[in-house]
């Protein structure tokens, strides 16, 4: 499999580079709450900040990237700029014992950048998207979710993901 994980933009360190409104050349910043299994844009930003931020749950079958923040590529780390030009997988790394699902991963389109709570995954040894799509199917499955629930507490760490066997 040989996944390549990355945290693209640190939401604390890069906060001064965030914009509140879309503008020319700005990319949407994807936050963890926007990611559901197989679906990015599950929630749209309404108002507020931090824990008081209000988000609308979008109904199943409807998705749109309506972020709280936007960022210009020139203010991103070089690796984040490169990744933002590619389709990749991303997953919400914050979990809780009472959440409906533990592992929530989706295909991240090019033209967005992911905050640190949405690590992204690429498979550099597979130039097609096949391995990426297969990985998404496996990690979003109920058996994988059941397995993850037994080995994580509050965060899906890379070493946990790498320790779980995937089919050859």
Q: How many helices?
A: 4
Helix content: 10-25%
Helix-and-strand structural type: alpha+beta
Outline, from the CA principal axes?
globular
Order of helices and strands: EEEEEEEEHEEEEHHH
What is the strand tally? 12
pLDDT < 50 stretches: none
Largest sheet: 4 strands, antiparallel
Strand order of the largest sheet: 1-12-9-10
Taking the alpha carbons of the first and last residues, their distance comes to: 8 Å
Radius of gyration in whole Å, from Cα? 15 Å
Report what the structure shows.
With 168 residues, this protein is an alpha+beta fold. It is built from four helices and twelve strands. The chain has helices at residues 78-84, 130-139, 142-151, 158-163, and strands at 4-6, 18-19, 27-30, 35-36, 39-40, 43-47, 54-57, 70-71, 88-91, 105-108, 113-114, 120-122. Strands 1-12-9-10 form a four-stranded antiparallel β-sheet, with helices on one face. Strand 6 (43-47) and strand 7 form a beta hairpin. The chain is globular, with a radius of gyration of 15 Å. The mean pLDDT is 92.
């Amino acid at each position: 499999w040989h996944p390549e994980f990355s945290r693209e933009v640190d939401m604390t360190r890069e906060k001064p580079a965030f914009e509140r409104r879309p503008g020319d050349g700005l990319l949407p910043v994807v936050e963890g709450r926007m990611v559901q299994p197989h679906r990015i844009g599950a929630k749209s930003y309404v108002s507020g900040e931090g824990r008081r931020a209000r988000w609308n749950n979008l109904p199943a079958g409807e998705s749109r990237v309506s972020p709280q923040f936007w960022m210009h590529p020139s203010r991103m780390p070089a690796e984040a700029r490169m990744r933002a030009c590619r389709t990749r997988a991303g997953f919400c790394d914050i979990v809780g014992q009472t959440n409906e699902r533990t592992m929530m991963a989706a295909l991240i389109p090019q033209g967005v950048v992911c905050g640190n709570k949405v690590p992204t995954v690429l498979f550099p040894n597979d130039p097609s998207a096949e391995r990426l799509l297969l990985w998404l199917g496996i990690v979003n499955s109920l058996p994988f979710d059941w397995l993850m629930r037994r080995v994580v507490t509050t965060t899906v760490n890379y070493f946990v993901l790498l320790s779980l066997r995937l089919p050859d």
